[in-house]
Structure formats: structure tokens, C-alpha cells
Design brief:
By secondary structure, the chain is mainly β. It contains no helices and 13 strands.
Length: 172
């Protein structure tokens, strides 16, 4: 990250010099940008997936204020997905939880909840889904809308030939 004084004390910031790219003006370092991976997102990113925001900045009270023109330069390379079923969040849960999964290609998808005996409790997804990341909430009810009891449950994703099952705990 660097800045260039352009006019009247205004600074232009840039982020992400990649490869042999060099800024056109001298660089004055004023900070650092860090990224943190949060959750269990089933998404694979590469350098080509990064976006850059370019803006004029002004120092205001020890901080920076962006003002126009602001433009977004985004690489148009699409992220790469894989077939994956993530652990539900939160787990254990009460009263609801979220299940995330990703699809490497369009597929017929079935996502269902089962009890410890293997009996289907609830169908969450049944149908064709597009490539990408999907999230579904389960509110701890069965297909008839009745609340299920505390205990261990399993959720199974079938997407084309991909199959995966995970365990979760409902605490009432």
C-alpha cells in the first residue's frame, strides 16, 4: 500500500502491486492491509480474483477520508468452486443453524436432515442448483413443522455423484 501526494495535500492510495508491476510515482508507505479468512467458506481464491479500489484520499483527524473519483478495478476471472459440504454453524445450536455447501458445477441437489436411526426428519433442498456457494437455515423442525427434540442429527448432501454427511447437535 502506498500514497502519492497529488494536489492540496490529497493522497492517492493503491493496494496490491502484483508481479513486476511498479507504481508510476514514488511510494510513501502509510499503512498495511491484512485479510483474515473467517468461517468455513468452501471457496478457493487466487491472485487473479482480487479487486482494487482506487480513490483520492484526504487526511482528516488522523484518519483517511475517500472522495471521488472512486473506481473499482476488478479482474473478471471467476472463482473456482469445488463440491463441498461445510460444518453447520453454530454447532451445537438452538434454535437454528446454517448449513453451507458449494457446487463445482450446476447439479441436482438433495440436502436432508436425518435422526440417529436414519429416518429423514426434514428435506431442506431438492432440485437443480447453480455453481457456487449456497447457505440453508434449519430451524429445528421436521417436514410437518413440528419442533424436533434435542439430540444428534445428521445432514446429507447429494449433488450429482458427490455425497457427504456431517453430524450436528441440537440443544433445547
Amino acid at each position: 500500500m502506498g500514497t502519492e501526494v497529488t494536489r492540496d495535500g490529497v493522497r492517492q492510495a493503491f493496494v496490491g502491486v502484483i508481479g513486476d508491476s511498479k507504481p508510476l510515482a514514488p511510494v510513501v508507505e502509510f499503512g498495511r492491509v491484512e485479510f483474515e479468512v473467517v468461517g468455513e467458506e468452501p471457496l478457493v481464491l487466487s491472485e487473479e480474483d482480487l479487486s482494487f479500489i482506487i480513490a483520492d484520499l484526504e487526511v482528516v483527524g488522523g484518519g483517511l477520508r475517500a472522495f471521488s473519483p472512486i473506481r473499482l478495478e476488478k479482474n473478471e476471472v471467476q472463482p473456482t468452486y469445488r463440491f463441498e459440504l461445510a460444518q453447520n454453524v453454530p454447532n451445537p445450536f438452538n434454535p437454528s443453524t446454517t448449513i453451507a455447501y458449494s457446487l463445482a458445477s450446476n447439479a441436482d441437489v438433495a440436502l436432508a436432515i436425518f435422526d440417529v436411526t436414519g429416518a429423514r426428519v426434514k428435506t431442506l433442498v431438492s432440485g437443480r442448483e447453480n455453481t457456487g456457494v449456497h447457505r440453508v437455515a434449519w430451524d429445528g423442525t421436521n417436514d410437518r413443522g413440528a419442533r424436533v427434540s434435542s439430540g444428534v442429527y445428521f445432514y446429507r448432501l447429494i449433488a450429482g455423484s458427490f455425497k457427504s454427511t456431517k453430524k450436528m447437535v441440537l440443544l433445547r
